[in-house]
Amino acid sequence: MTGSSATTDRSPDLRNYILVTAAYWADTLADGASRVLVLFFFYSLGYSPFKLATLFVFYEVFGIITNLVGGFIAARWGLKTTLFAGLAIQICALTMLGLAPESWLVVGYVMAAQALSGIAKDLTKMSSKSAVKLVVVDGEEGSLYRWVAILTGSKNALKGVGFFLGGLLLTVVGFQTGMLLLAAMVATALVATAVLMHGGLGTADGKAKFRHMFSQNRAVNILAAARIFLFASRDVWFVVGLPVFLRTVLGWSFWEVGSFLAIWVIGYGAVQASAPRWVRRNTDQGHREPDGRTAALIAFLLALFPAAIAIALEADVDETLAIVVGLAAFGVIFAVNSAVHSYLILSYSHGDRVAMNVGFYYMANAAGRLVGTLLSGLLYQWQGLTACLWASVIFVLAAALLSLLLPNQRTAARSTSVAAT
Fold first, then answer.
1. Dihedral sign for Cα atoms in the order 262, 264, 269, 274
2. How far apart are CA 183 and CA 98, in angstroms?
3. I need a surface site. Which of 59, 75, 266, 306 has the fewest CB within 10 A?
4. Looking at domain 7-197+215-420, which CATH architecture does it have?
């Protein structure tokens, strides 16, 4: 009877969650496409690797701020507020670039538009990730792991499609028309969600305080620190170094580079979505979900791949082979590690702390991307792609060492969380 009641109570949440996820997918698609449009449009204007990286600095800086403030807003006024705000701001960001006179398309203006895009992306992401808790019965850790993996994996797969779409739009319709088409897509998602969503999304807590955004949960804090280094390890080569290397050293076209990035991220997303089948230990009591030890072991394994690619490039191994094979392997292991992290943050969060802990965690995620983005341009301009790859090794090892401090048993993590709240 209890199970039936829980299912009935959650059915409106499931409907709204489906709408939130669809809106998040539309925003993710637009976000991935717009980043490729910006990167290659300004590369074609002769921008240096480091200058290209600076175009995305505000995107990441405001992502940090948004996750911190957004978690508080979501806790105080509900996830519906942050979702609609995110979609509306993304429309503004895209139209800023789509309607601007050509003379306005300079570094400062583009950085401002990217700042809005970063705010939008993180508001919608935080809303969707937090909403997972609304449709999973408390204590159903296996279900939570599967839902998180599917959401995270589908998001990254669609971001990969966005990279492909960005390269296509730049080739077929050009930079500004492409931005306007993306804005129209997000506007459609906003209107459809506003019309079809019934009631609110989660429970708002009018007593939530901003100071509560800074987690008192040791496990959450350690996981957030590990997340900084994990995502810095990816973006230190992925954001600027790799695309510029493929274009300038290997001589690939914009279309080919965009397609490769798209395939890589789509594959990465597919692996994330299937992570529960890859990372789940069998015990006498049945399946056991991943814990801190799992995250640490996967991270140590991950560090081998950027090191192997860097060694191969320095040893004059065929560059295309080293990049394609090496980064495919890196993507598989990174995707599994990221999926484990995304599960752990929700496993460590309970009650009215979910949105705040998720916001704090993704603030760390954005901080890692910021560091990786800046170093991607700087290191590539200084010593090329191998320098970016060795930096990736260092960051992954830091994430692995921090993960060793996470709780090794899920029950221990739960008691820590309850005690903290």
1. positive
2. 9
3. 266
4. Up-down Bundle (1.20)
Cβ atoms 186, 87 nearer than 8 A: yes
Is the distance from CB of 145 to CB of 378 less than 8 angstroms? no
Instruction: Map out the domains of the chain as residue ranges.
Output: 7-197+215-420
Distance CA 233, CA 368 (A): 8
What is the reported pLDDT for 375?
A: 92
Mapped onto helix, strand or coil, the DSSP state of residue 55 is: coil
State the pLDDT at residue 379: 93
Q: What is the pLDDT of residues 98-136, one digit of tens each?
A: 999 988 888 889 989 989 998 898 888 777 766 666 655
Structure tokens that stand for 229 in this block: 């280094």
Residue 205 — φ and ψ, nearest 5°? -120, 100
Question: What pLDDT digit, counting tens, does each position of 114-123 carry?
Answer: 899 988 988 8
Beta-carbon contacts of 159 under 8 Å, excluding residues fewer than 6 positions away, are 28, 29, 31, 32, 265, 269
Residue 417, token pair as written in the block: 């969380």
26 neighbors 189 (Cβ within 8 angstroms): yes
pTM of the complete model beyond 0.70: yes
Kindly tell me if the per-residue pLDDT of 208 is higher than 70.
no
CA distances from 379 to 41, 112, 318, 384 (A): 22, 24, 22, 6
- Cβ contact 147:93 at 8 Å: no
- Residue 343 is given by DSSP the state H
Q: What pLDDT band is residue 339 in, cutting at 50, 70 and 90?
A: confident
